[in-house]
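About this split. The held-out portion is used to measure sequence recovery: a designer receives only the structure tokens and must propose an amino acid at every position. Recovery is the fraction of positions where the proposal matches the reference. Here is one held-out target exactly as it appears in the evaluation file.
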């Protein structure tokens, strides 16, 4: 497990990459809506896993909703920070419930708002917390999901 000082960090291995992995997430993933965010989640096949990276995450902001790149980047940074601060509940539950060599949980956070209503970090953080809590309670009730 991670040391105390690095427990809240977001490592490079925790970021979802690869066209096939992301395409599978958007095609077959389940969705949860929040006020500002849409969370899409799915399970990927077993791959080369680091023991602490059982959850891979993706952050996206639409160019149509937020035309300016500076604002899109700011929103993405806020989403990453909110997830980084709230991910411990999800990582802890998934590491307890998943045995070695099982599937990776893929999560995409998509910003649904506009550039006019830029949310504050505490708003995004509470929304990420709610979405992650819904996901962990749903995963606990659905044994076929694997996590």
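Reference sequence for scoring:
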């Amino acid at each position: 497990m991670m040391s105390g000082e690095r427990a809240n960090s977001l490592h490079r291995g925790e970021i979802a990459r690869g066209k096939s992995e992301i395409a599978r997430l958007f095609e077959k993933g389940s969705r949860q809506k929040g006020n500002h965010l849409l969370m899409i989640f799915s399970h990927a096949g077993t791959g080369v896993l680091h023991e602490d990276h059982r959850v891979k995450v993706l952050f996206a902001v639409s160019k149509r909703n937020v035309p300016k790149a500076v604002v899109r980047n700011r929103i993405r940074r806020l989403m990453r920070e909110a997830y980084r601060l709230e991910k411990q509940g999800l990582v802890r539950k998934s590491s307890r419930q998943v045995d070695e060599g099982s599937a990776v949980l893929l999560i995409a956070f998509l910003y649904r708002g506009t550039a006019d209503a830029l949310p504050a970090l505490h708003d995004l953080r509470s929304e990420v917390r709610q979405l992650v809590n819904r996901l962990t309670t749903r995963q606990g009730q659905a044994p076929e999901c694997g996590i």
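Annotator remark: The chain has a mean pLDDT of 79.
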